[in-house]
């Protein structure tokens, strides 16, 4: 059997350990009490006018979200992705996740177009790689937000 040697600290060494530990505790308390919560800033900074302007930009490029690619190009999908990214930053908190879902869908459409060489085939590929019901729910949530801004919806715009 091996024996473990006990370390005997002197009184001076214990004092240094206690002072260092107390210093770390005090520093942690000071840092945590001076930090302001980020969530409160996000709530205070919401601007409905800015959001509605961003929502209008999303609506202008959203024809791909209604499931048709009639008359659209891959550049329209890229513009939609940019509009969704810009809109997500200023959107109401409850809509942020839905916009992220739509960003993912638009990304899949773009990737499908790159693989298939055709936007319609890319749209079909994207629809086969997502939960269609959840994408439809995200589109409905965005439609509600557009309506709240006084804008036409995705399928009617």
List the helices and strands and how they pair.
Elements: H1 11-34, H2 38-44, H3 48-60, H4 74-90, H5 93-116, H6 119-128, H7 132-148
Helix pairs in contact: 3-4, 4-5, 5-6, 5-7
Describe it.
The chain contains 7 helices and no strands. It is an all-alpha fold and 157 residues long. Helix 5 (93-116) crosses helix 6 and helix 5 (93-116) crosses helix 7 (132-148). The protein is elongated.
- Structural class assignment: mainly alpha
Kindly state the number of beta strands. Answer: 0
- What is the makeup of the main sheet? none
SSE pattern: HHHHHHH
Task: Indicate the low-confidence ranges by residue numbers.
Answer: none
Strand content: under 5%
Shape: elongated
Share in helix = over 70%
Mean of all residue-level pLDDT scores: 83
Number of helices: 7
Radius of gyration: 27 Å
Distance between the termini: 81 Å
Please give a handful of descriptors for the protein shown.
single chain, 157 residues, mainly alpha, 0% strand, elongated
């Amino acid at each position: 059997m091996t024996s473990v040697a006990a370390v005997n600290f002197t009184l001076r060494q214990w004092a240094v350990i206690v002072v260092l530990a107390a210093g770390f505790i005090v520093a942690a308390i000071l840092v945590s009490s001076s930090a302001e919560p980020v969530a409160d800033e996000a709530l205070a900074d919401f601007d409905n006018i800015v959001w509605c302007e961003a929502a209008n930009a999303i609506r202008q490029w959203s024809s791909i979200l209604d499931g048709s690619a009639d008359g659209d190009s891959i550049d329209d999908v890229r513009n939609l992705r940019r509009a969704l990214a810009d809109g997500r930053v200023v959107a109401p908190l409850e809509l942020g996740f839905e916009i992220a879902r739509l960003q993912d869908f638009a990304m899949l459409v773009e990737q499908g177009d790159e693989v298939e060489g055709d936007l319609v085939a890319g749209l079909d590929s994207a629809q086969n790689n997502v939960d269609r019901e959840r994408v439809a729910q995200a589109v409905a949530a965005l439609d509600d937000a557009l309506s709240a801004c006084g804008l036409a919806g995705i399928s009617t715009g």
